[in-house]
User: Fold Triacylglycerol lipase from Amycolatopsis dongchuanensis.
Amino acid sequence: MRRVLGVLLAVCTAALTFAGAGTARAATHTPVIFVHGYTGNASNWVTAEALFAAAGYSGDELYAYDYNWAQSNRTSAAGLAAYVNQVRQRTGASKVDIVNHSMGGLVTDWYVKQLGGTASVAHVASLAGANHGTTYAGACLIYPSCQEMYPGSSFIATVTSGDETPGPTRFATWYSPCDGIIIPYTSTALSGAANNYVACQTHLGYLTDAAVLSQVRAFLAT
Assistant:
């Protein structure tokens, strides 16, 4: 009898432990993937991740995609597609949200429009995204990424053709005349997106702007 009771106790304990683990892993938010820009890396998003964590996001809901910014944005977009699938498999989420900055806008746009990303992305938030290119890229045309980022490139023509905000994915952008890197600064705005004019913010300033990042977080909650 003592042995039977011991077995039952062990089974009950295991069941409770499993249930507890399931509760701990249950996602309260759609996982967020941050995508950096030209010369950037995953560390660009430290402030954003801290702000999102303070608002209740867990470590399993925040990810930063790191890629070689010098390579073709097509290659980086294919890597983003694979990364999104990895995050979805890890979290069990059907979709992710993407927050990008600068050239990360082009990487995201190519993934969403050309690689079928609309099926896996709920929201796209673009901070100073080079969505229609920037003449500033003329200073780094030795890199494929900058050749593609220059206004009038075949890459820009392809990624901006047709519907700029396709499918069920919701888009929002933040752009400012004080940007200084995205030229013209209106290049960030996307037709069909919620385009947010920021009175004065520098290109890198968005990465630590608590007010804008809070707006981004609120947008992802819609």
Residues 1-25 have pLDDT under 50 and may be disordered.
